[in-house]
Bifunctional protein FolD
Amino acid sequence: MITLKGAVVSAKIKEEVTELLRELAGTIPRLAIVRVGERPDDMAYERGALKKMENFGLQAESFSYPADISDEDFQAEFKKINENPGIDGILLLRPLPKQIHERDIERMILPEKDLDGISPENIARVFAGESEGFAPCTAEAVIEVLKANDISLTGKRVAVVGRSMVVGRPLSMLLLKENATVTICHTRTKEIEKTCQNAEILIAAAGQAKMIDPSYVGADAVVIDVGINVDNDGNLCGDVDFESLNGVASMATPVPGGVGAVTTAVLAKHLVMAARKRRGSRA
Amino acid sequence: MITLKGAVVSAKIKEEVTELLRELAGTIPRLAIVRVGERPDDMAYERGALKKMENFGLQAESFSYPADISDEDFQAEFKKINENPGIDGILLLRPLPKQIHERDIERMILPEKDLDGISPENIARVFAGESEGFAPCTAEAVIEVLKANDISLTGKRVAVVGRSMVVGRPLSMLLLKENATVTICHTRTKEIEKTCQNAEILIAAAGQAKMIDPSYVGADAVVIDVGINVDNDGNLCGDVDFESLNGVASMATPVPGGVGAVTTAVLAKHLVMAARKRRGSRA
């Protein structure tokens, strides 16, 4: 079984970003990472994103607020960031605390700064299979992993396990755009192992630690693991029991070191694309 | 094989509409049908919708414009309809002639009047599986046919043939909301017959006259035909070769007399729901 490493894909995306940056003629795009509270997974993602932006030659700034900030205050702060002409793109770490109306933020964020595809405008574009607009970075990272490894999608049977708005649903639409035949599985799917076994490419985005074992995997299938979980020993693990797939799957992504590393690279690419679009004509 | 008749489903929806109307206490909701040019299929759909609204005790008015109306003039006319407080819902017949920027209209239409789900706001809601908002009427009509005939969707293997924004994509999301395991097939799907045969419920929305024959249909499957085509003899026909499924499928919808009759009933239901929401508190 070949291990599909995220770092290799990230390096390819870096080349693209560097090329795009060149056309910006000295303007360095700037990302705002917006965080409320101090959830450990938000903090970890933020650190990873800040590091990646620096590594890719981009600017990033963290805007953090106390977990008990009022809805009104947060909306006012978010509005400032949204309207700040020096900021090219925004990553909002979610979910937000309950007192904040996330829906209002989704409707407020400017689609052209909405790098993680949370606005209705971007959601509708992804759903329609358009090229314009931003898809959620994690969903797009899966496509990047497949493309960077020359795994064709046209006509392929692809099963997606999970139907979240962050991965499962938008990813299904991105796969459809690449002409895959997509089956969306979830907790209510009957005989889910059988359905997954029938797939040539299996994508696990269920949020269930090590759920995918050989009983789910067809011979020589490609398995992409989008899960980020903590196992019983407190170690980071995916939705896939990686080692168990040896001799079954043809290729698989590890966790950590797989899709996660690509997600922040996609974020960087979106940032440069946003900056080009906003400043392109003036650059 | 049992024939699933649209008229029976439409009659059930009429009961719901009548009940909802009662709560409006004398206010009769009003639909605007907006048409540009005189394409025969638009005219036929408009006639059917006007007749259905009358039959359901609702008001409807046709707003028609010459096929060569300028983008600017049409936008101005559409804006008036959109802002007219006496109009509760709008059905825009599409596609529009090329000189009109359909995208601008999709962004202009008020989501609360957008009965056929063309605005980004409604598209995003359907994609997210929310209960609020309006799905495209034809997609929702398929769900109504299944529900009215007590065909459960939870855990069922459902194949959708076609990936349009009018039927295939939104319908897939509505099916997912009902906990079906959804496979989206299309022109690039390899071995499409085999994939379709594996489905317990097969939905044809490909726009290909009589494409679906017994080679696509598993034993005792339920087949729903969303197609509206004209065959070689000039007769209306669906995507399904209906007669050929005798002895193979357990149930199927005919064309005409199937999903089409339900689509305008869903439009009527959406109209009353829109009116309730807009006027409800004042009624």
